């Protein structure tokens, strides 16, 4: 039970009303949502197990008779040599103890011309772009932020 809230006072139990049937669980329900879109952008942080996520969702989409195409943002990164040169001023030289926080943005690490002009696979029912910075592609369609933590995924019978 949430205690009553007085206007102008800090609410230690903030909540927002959702319409019915807005939260679901499992890859099967996610596949049903995704199947309604031609392009899906899956943004997330670097620690997400994107490949495992892809395997699980692809399994359910194939069961629905859908063909998918997947692109990962790592395919759009600048070369390691260019990135090394970009970050070197922040690394502290010979003594990394004296490194400093970077002023670079995530866009600086990608070849923005290539990521923004990446063509979808016309033979696929659903085109995915996944990884940190995926939303930089500017694709029209479903945009989702995924958190698929670095932990062992054990499916629960009936909840795959």
Measured by DSSP, the beta-strand proportion falls in 5-15%
Query: What is the count of distinct domains?
Result: 1
Counted beta strands: 4
Low-pLDDT stretches are: none
Q: What's the SSE pattern?
A: HEHEHHEE
**What is the CA-atom radius of gyration, in angstroms?**
20 Å
DSSP helix count? 4
For the largest beta sheet, what order do the strands appear in spatially? Answer: 2-3-1-4
Distance between the termini: 31 Å
Mean pLDDT: 87
Q: Determine the fraction of residues in helical runs and give it as a percent range.
A: 10-25%
Main β-sheet description: 4 strands, parallel
Structural notes for this entry:
The chain has helices at 27-34, 50-63, 80-87, 112-116, and strands at 39-43, 68-72, 126-130, 142-145. The longest helix is centred in the middle third of the chain and has 14 residues, at 50-63. 22% of the residues lie in helices and 12% in strands. The model has no long low-confidence stretch (mean pLDDT 87). The protein has 160 residues and is of the alpha/beta class. It is built from four helices and four strands, in the order αβαβααββ. The chain starts with 26 loop residues before the first helix and ends in a 15-residue tail after the last strand. A four-stranded parallel sheet has the order 2-3-1-4, covered by helices on one side. It has one domain.
Helices and strands in order, then pairings?
Blueprint: H1 27-34, E1 39-43, H2 50-63, E2 68-72, H3 80-87, H4 112-116, E3 126-130, E4 142-145
Parallel strand pairs: 1-3, 1-4, 2-3
């Amino acid at each position: 039970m949430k205690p009553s809230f007085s206007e102008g006072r800090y609410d230690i139990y903030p909540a927002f009303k959702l319409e019915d049937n807005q939260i679901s669980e499992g890859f099967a329900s996610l596949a049903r949502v995704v199947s309604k879109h031609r392009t899906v952008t899956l943004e997330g942080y670097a620690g997400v197990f994107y490949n495992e996520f892809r395997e699980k969702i692809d399994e359910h989409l194939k069961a629905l008779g859908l063909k998918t195409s997947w692109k990962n943002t790592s395919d759009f990164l600048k070369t390691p040599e260019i990135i090394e040169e970009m970050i070197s001023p922040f690394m502290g030289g010979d003594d990394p103890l004296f490194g400093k926080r970077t002023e670079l943005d995530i866009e600086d690490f990608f070849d923005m011309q290539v990521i923004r002009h990446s063509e979808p696979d016309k033979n696929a029912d659903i085109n995915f772009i996944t990884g940190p910075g995926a939303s930089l592609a500017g694709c029209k369609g479903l945009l989702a932020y995924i958190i698929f933590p670095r932990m062992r995924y054990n499916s629960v019978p009936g909840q795959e």
